[in-house]
Amino acid sequence: MQITTQAVPGSVSIALAGSGGSGVMTAGTILLAAAAKTGAYGLMVRTSGPQIRGGEAAALLRLGPRSITSLDDGFDLLLAIDWHNVSRFADEIVLGPRSVLIGDMDEAGVPDIFKATGARYEALNMKKMAKAIPGSWINMIALGVAGRMAGLPLIYLQDAVREAWKTPATLEANLEAVAAGAESATGIALHLAQSANPMAQLQAGVQSAGPRWMISGNEATGLGAIRGGVRFVAAYPITPATEVLEWLAPKLVEAGGTLLQAEDELASINMIIGASYGGVPSLTATSGPGLALMTEAIGLAVASEVPIVVVDVMRGGPSTGIPAKSEQSDLSFAVSGLHGDAPRLVVAPNSIADCLRATQWAVHLAEALQAPAIVLSDQFLGQSRAIVDRPAEAEQGATRIRAEANAPDYKRYRDTPSGVSPMAIPGTEGVSYTADGLEHSEVGIPSSQSRDHGMQLDKRQRKLDLHDYGPYWADIEGDGDAVVITFGSASGPVREAIARANAEGMSLRLISLRLLAPAQPAAMSAALQGAAHVMVVEQNHGAQLYRYLRAWYDFPVRPVSFHRPGPLPLRPGELVNALRAWRNGK
């Protein structure tokens, strides 16, 4: 792939790589924290081999003076602590003649696949430098090298180490290691500055800003759940959703809630249905294989009208697939994967920061509409960490309509105009009812009568269709007659690609969908007003979003599809090329 002009002027792309346990993720996280101290924005994407633990690992960073939601087309620096299987990342770590390779002199030679890129190689004695400072770690040498080459002041690098360090006895040694690494990179950094490499220019474009957060999508999801009112979580650990649970475990207790690690996904989904039936907003987090196991129970939540939230942090599939890589391939399953006519809510955050508000919104929707809500995050959003502007506090959302004690003529599943009927909490006097998966009458008595079945099907669909979802259903940007529709983590590279294309004279409009189900025909029609061209962009093999949109929406013109699967993330440059070809009619 040819590296194209950046849409984030002065941004820096750095890859830190090595074998599992070499500390590249720690070094990358600290480098991101140091960049935050300068006032910069940044993104760190984690990538590893199929082993998840052990094997090869890499921290892919992009730093810059403006908000960053996508990796760039290529990398300015690849620093390898060792070369053990790092060549497996060659497709992810794209290098070119202006890139720099750094490796240890004592390690085996640079893999041929990286040499072929024309990148300049510099060897450093990182292991010997670390051994010369008793108690220091080689990844702190690497941190100093990368930080110096990014133009970050040593004081910020060392401050970030102090804040992250958990072993006081070795802190001073590793502060010294950071300084030694920075000093060893001085000559290389000067060479980069002379060649106008953007890494040495990072600070020049940084502007003062308001409060920033450094957060991952999984952490933001957990915070959104708590802010939404979730007070019970049951889940079984699964990559890449586990960090949602790890973050929530202590935080939920502080908020007065409970988290329980279930024995499997079947248990976890049934536990949250039970807790929500008891009146407590509840959530589980999983990935594709776990979501597949939960489908029968989600159908139970649809039929019994019990609000729950299921966070699906998507990964490559099918089956076990590619656990540590991202892909938007659960969409079809999320919107139509249940047996029977089973309407449900499907919400997709479109950035790391948006994981907070989208999850909070999903909780509010589930509670207000007494329906299951699926939050479609993915590995890119969930496990990546970013420096973001502090998200604004969301307005207080709707809450569950509850039945009052001794309500006259109480019918749990009354066929109301809105489709929403008051829900009695077990133990409330005079309003007991039966809730199970069988079709039922308005009272809740199991029924196989056509009239009852038709009434309840209409009721469950109507409450989702009639709800006013407001402007948050999608982000709509620009006013060109060529429209790009996307969702989720694809929104970041699409946004940057559109910015680059607009700079070339194209006039493009973006629709980044947040509410995938139920479909919003009226809102989409308004968003497409004046559109003469439509492209749908997504990261999966089967064009799932394209096919879903064609099924539910009328388009003013026949849309075209740009889709490819993971595990490689979508890049702005490849999308710009696709947009050029599309607009030129090729």
Q: Summarize this, please?
A:
It contains 19 helices and 20 strands. By secondary structure, it is of the alpha/beta class. The protein folds into 4 domains: about 10-210, Pyruvate-ferredoxin Oxidoreductase, domain 3 (3-Layer(aba) Sandwich), CATH 3.40.920.10; about 215-390, Thiamin diphosphate (ThDP)-binding fold, Pyr/PP domains (Rossmann fold), CATH 3.40.50; about 400-465, no CATH class; about 475-585, Rossmann fold.
Q: Low-confidence stretches at least 5 residues in length (pLDDT < 50)?
A: 1-6
Count of separate DSSP helical elements? 19
Spatial order of strands in the largest sheet: 6-5-4-1-3-2-14-7
Distance between the termini: 19 Å
As for the number of domains, it is 4
Topology:
Layout: E1 12-19, H1 24-37, E2 41-48, E3 56-64, E4 77-80, E5 100-104, H2 112-115, E6 120-124, H3 126-131, H4 138-149, H5 154-164, H6 171-184, H7 186-194, E7 212-216, H8 217-228, E8 232-235, H9 242-254, E9 258-261, H10 265-277, E10 282-286, H11 288-304, E11 308-314, H12 331-336, E12 345-347, H13 354-369, E13 372-378, H14 379-383, E14 385-389, H15 450-466, E15 474-477, E16 482-487, H16 491-503, E17 508-513, E18 515-517, H17 521-527, E19 533-538, H18 544-552, E20 560-563, H19 572-583
Parallel strand pairs: 1-4, 4-5, 5-6, 8-9, 8-10, 10-11, 11-13, 12-13, 16-17, 16-19, 19-20
Antiparallel strand pairs: 1-3, 2-3, 2-14, 7-14, 12-18, 15-17
